[in-house]
Amino acid sequence: MNDILSKTEEHATELLTKKLDSSYLYHNLRHTQRVVKSTKELLNFYSLKEEENNAITIAAWLHDIGYTVSATDHEEHGAKLAKAFLENLNCEQGLITTVCRLILATKMGHDPKDICEEIIKDADCSHFAQSSYVETSELLRDELAQLNIATLTRKEWRNKNIELFRTQHHYYTEYAKENWQPKKDENLEDLLKKKKKNSKLVKKEELKVSLKNKSPERGIQTMFRVTMRNHLKLSDIADTKANILLSVNAIIISLILANLIPKLDNPTNDYLVIPAAIFVIFSVASMIMSVLATRPNVTSGEFTKEDVENKKVNLLFFGNFHKMKLEEYEWAIQELIKDQVYVYSSLTKDLYFLGLVLDKKYKLLRWTYTIFMIGMVLSVIAFFVALKFYGPERIIELPT
């Protein structure tokens, strides 16, 4: 049986990390792991049969895999997937039937029929009694919005949570009633307090408290990490393109200076002056534009204590602190990490200004390639006209 439990955990982890849509910010592997942990907490209190313990644990791992198919009727989809998986492991039919029944029991509005269903129902809602409930709930709100199921304001979402706590949800097991219900009541009290407060400062302070320790931040961190990495890749691509164009034009000008310019002293080659001038002018212009596209822009590199206290400075960008003393910068960073809202604000600013730099860089790069292309076309036309109508009936071969 230990082998089946291990394979079940591996199967659920693989499905929820590789096949689950990234829009599921709440119903993901982290939520499943939380439910499994709460399930084990309940099972340690109740002395159930081994087969019941195993069935509940397996159901806890598989209860949300139906989201890999659809958010609608995900319990039914999850039961079908669980049945196919367990049959593939040659599990007993009784175990399969129990697991499927327990998965279906997690559906909202279902009244549990026995202690097994009560345990998995309570474990699925254990986050109602956790200190990280506020942010966990926000992830669910964002998930509903991304899936186009419901778009609710913070006020509307808070009111729905209050209604849920008061009338729609209650714990079933005696253990949850004694140990989790008081903490759930505290969260309800916090929701009611927030409903009465309108001050932004108070909301931010309460948000900082709710984000400590157990805050599930993986989705937010992934968003910043992926977006920042994509922007940096785009910046590297732009720099590479500019360097390529800079090198090409440098080679072109070197060849012209070494092979074509000396021949212009000969009066018989006067017809090449204008084409050569066009060629050189556009090459030099392309080089200048390439340099402008890659030239760094460094700011003052200083900030004041007031800037940090008022959260006006982005401490994550070197251009804002490179002239500051180490002690001053260490103090500023300590102030930054105390305030998670300030951290996300700094990351947002960093991302925003990086986008502005990319916009400028790509516009310059576009003009650079346009100038280079026009210069090449005009130069070829100029050389053709000069050789065809004004030069001798021969093409000067440049030495190799």
TrEMBL record:
Keywords: Antiviral defense, Cell membrane, Membrane, Nucleotide-binding, Transmembrane, Transmembrane helix. It holds the Pfam family HD. Its main location: membrane. SUPFAM superfamilies: HD-domain/PDEase-like (SSF109604). Residues 225-385 form the Pycsar effector protein domain. One of its GO terms (molecular function) is nucleotide binding. The chain crosses the membrane at residues 242-261, 273-293, 367-390. GO terms for biological process: defense response to virus. It is found in: Cell membrane. InterPro entries: HD/PDEase_dom, HD_domain, PycTM_dom. This is Metal-dependent phosphohydrolase HD sub domain protein.
